[in-house]
Design goal:
This protein is mainly alpha-helical. The chain has one domain: Cytochrome c-like domain (Cytochrome Bc1 Complex, Chain D, domain 2, Orthogonal Bundle), CATH 1.10.760.10. The chain has nine helices and four strands. The chain has a two-stranded antiparallel ribbon with strand order 1-2. A hairpin with a 7-residue loop joins β3 and β4. It is elongated. It binds heme C. The site of heme C has 23 residues, from α6.
Length: 272
């Protein structure tokens, strides 16, 4: 009985911790290369996304990454989640041409984007994407931060991890050396160089800054509801703490007469 109770309490507590993002990551262990450990504002049980960084990251994504990578789950209305107003999100959407249709004559046509549209992919299909990238497929970035062990730290490390290859490494044409890619060979040329974008808020666009910003944006894109999840986890833990105290008091009250011997007939049969 005691074991069962402890087990259930343990289960309940770990559910709460998992919601808060405190559960130990199974993937972090056994990593061959040590990732750069960046302090992101969205880490920890009360972490939130830095909206300004996410907006700068969106700019980096738009101006650089989106020429090769798609983000199929990203709709323009989602931009309100990182602090853009509806008008601004509408204006950004309208800068894109979306293929719609068919019209009354059965033809597809182009029109400016709306809030409900997804961001258009750079290539019509995987084969076209491969053909344009020397046979390598640039993966969709919608959930890449969740999909790779190491998550945000991995993405940051990868983007800042281009180095001169050591002498004993042979690179095929179209391959680049990256300290953090599995096998160290990557078909993506170094995407970031200093001052590639002009930030409107005056932040200096160093490689590290852009890598950090685009990582914040992609971490948000991979889990836009993270802040709600964490706050639910926290409320749940508070609720459970109060509930456990109440359960304990109730339990004591129910058993008190029996423990005091006021009901001597209870439990007699078992003893006999
Ligand atoms: C010139 C095209 C190009 C641009 C621009 C580009 N990428 Fe890539 N990216 C690729 C290709 C091709 C691959 C596949 C590499 C491979 O499989 O070796 C890739 C792979 C990746 C991966 C997966 C690495 C892994 O672990 O498998 C990530 C993450 C990534 N890119 C992020 C980005 C980000 C963020 C940007 C913008 C800052 C960006 N890329 C810009 C072409 C590009």
């Amino acid at each position: 009985m005691r074991i069962k109770k402890t087990f259930i309490l343990g289960l309940v507590a770990s559910l709460g911790f998992a919601n808060l993002g405190l559960a130990p990551s199974a993937l972090a262990a056994g990593e061959a290369v040590k990732l750069k450990d960046i302090e992101f504002s969205f880490e920890g049980p009360f972490g939130t996304f830095d909206r300004a960084a996410a907006q700068r990251g969106f700019q980096v994504y738009r101006e650089i990454c989106s020429s090769c990578h798609s983000a199929q789950y990203f709709a323009f209305r989602n931009l309100e989640g990182i602090g853009y107003s509806e008008e601004m999100a509408k204006a950004i959407a309208a800068e894109y041409q979306i293929t719609d249709g068919p019209d009354d004559f059965g033809d597809m046509f182009e029109r400016p984007g709306k809030l409900s549209d997804r961001m258009p992919a750079p290539f019509p299909n995987q084969n076209a994407a491969r053909a344009a990238n020397g046979g390598a497929y640039p993966p969709d970035l919608s959930v890449i931060v969740k999909a790779r062990p190491g998550g945000a730290d991995y993405l940051y490390s990868l983007l800042t991890g281009y180095e001169e290859p050591p002498a004993d490494i042979e690179l095929a044409p179209g391959q680049y050396y990256n300290a953090y890619m599995a096998g160290h060979k990557i078909a993506m040329p170094q995407p970031l160089y200093d001052d590639m974008v002009g930030y409107a808020d005056g932040t200096e666009a160093t490689v590290e800054q852009m890598a950090k910003d685009v990582t914040v944006f992609l971490a948000w894109l991979a889990e836009p509801s993270m802040e709600q999840r964490k706050s639910i986890g926290f409320s749940f833990m508070i609720f459970m703490s109060i509930f456990v105290v109440l359960l304990y008091l109730t339990n004591r009250r129910i058993w008190r007469p029996i423990k005091k011997g006021a009901m001597p007939w209870v439990g007699k049969d078992e003893k006999a």
